[in-house]
Amino acid sequence: MKAWVFFLLCLAGRALAAPQQEALPDETEVVEETVAEVSEVPVGANPVQVEVGEFEEGAVEAEEEVVAENPCQNHHCKHGKVCELDESNTPMCVCQDPTSCPAPIGEFEKVCSNDNKTFDSSCHFFATKCTLEGTKKGHKLHLDYIGPCKYIPPCLDSELTEFPLRMRDWLKNVLVTLYERDEDKDIDKDLVI
């Protein structure tokens, strides 16, 4: 039953579409005749190209010289580096000057490094990291999080005196937890055997 209903709907749709298909060729013929009557220029001729005598030869030569392709266009560099051409016109990556980075739009572009220094944008950070490349500071410098760095106040004297005791307590808790986990595994092994 469902198949018959589907079949009838398809036939009705085809019947409704059929008259529209027959009317289209008449409309296109009228449009083509109108275009042929209006056009006085031979078919395929471009009116701009017909009057070639008005152009100067110097303009044609200037267009031929612009054809040179930029070798840096397809040469990709990592963050903080830009492509420049050497004497032999070969592309190479060099460190970007942080002052050439675009100005930040808002606070959301700021980034914080692992040494708690805020940079205006990731571009400024990677450019600075590139200039420090090969040094101890540059090797250790990493992007910590996005956003301005949070203020870390200096430790008070009382906190400095408490530190060894708190560190000892923390380490003791870690070792006790690891010992208890190890005992639980040994009990599970005994139950399996």
CATH architecture of the domain at 71-146: 2-Layer Sandwich
Output the strand order for the largest sheet: 4-3-5
**Alpha-carbon distance between the two ends:** 65 Å
| Radius of gyration of CA atoms, rounded to a whole number | 38 Å
Mean residue pLDDT:
77
CATH fold-level name of the domain at 71-146 = Wheat Germ Agglutinin (Isolectin 2), domain 1
List the uncertain runs: 21-36
Tell me the number of helical segments per DSSP (H or I, 4 or more residues long). Answer: 6
Family: Belongs to the SPARC family.
Subcellular location: Secreted, Extracellular space, Extracellular matrix, Basement membrane
GO molecular function: calcium ion binding; collagen binding; extracellular matrix binding
Domain Kazal-like: 94-151
Describe this structure as you would to a colleague:
This is SPARC. GO terms for molecular function: calcium ion binding; collagen binding; extracellular matrix binding. InterPro entries: EF-hand-dom_pair, Fol_N, Follistatin/Osteonectin_EGF, Kazal_dom, Kazal_dom_sf, Osteonectin_CS, SPARC/Testican_Ca-bd-dom, SPARC_FS. It is found in: Secreted, Extracellular space, Extracellular matrix, Basement membrane. It is built from six helices and five strands. With 193 residues, the protein is mostly helical. The protein has a domain of 76 residues: Wheat Germ Agglutinin (Isolectin 2), domain 1, CATH 3.30.60. The strands form two sheets. It has a three-stranded antiparallel beta sheet with strand order 4-3-5. Strands 1-2 form a two-stranded antiparallel ribbon. The longest helix is centred in the N-terminal third of the chain and has 37 residues.
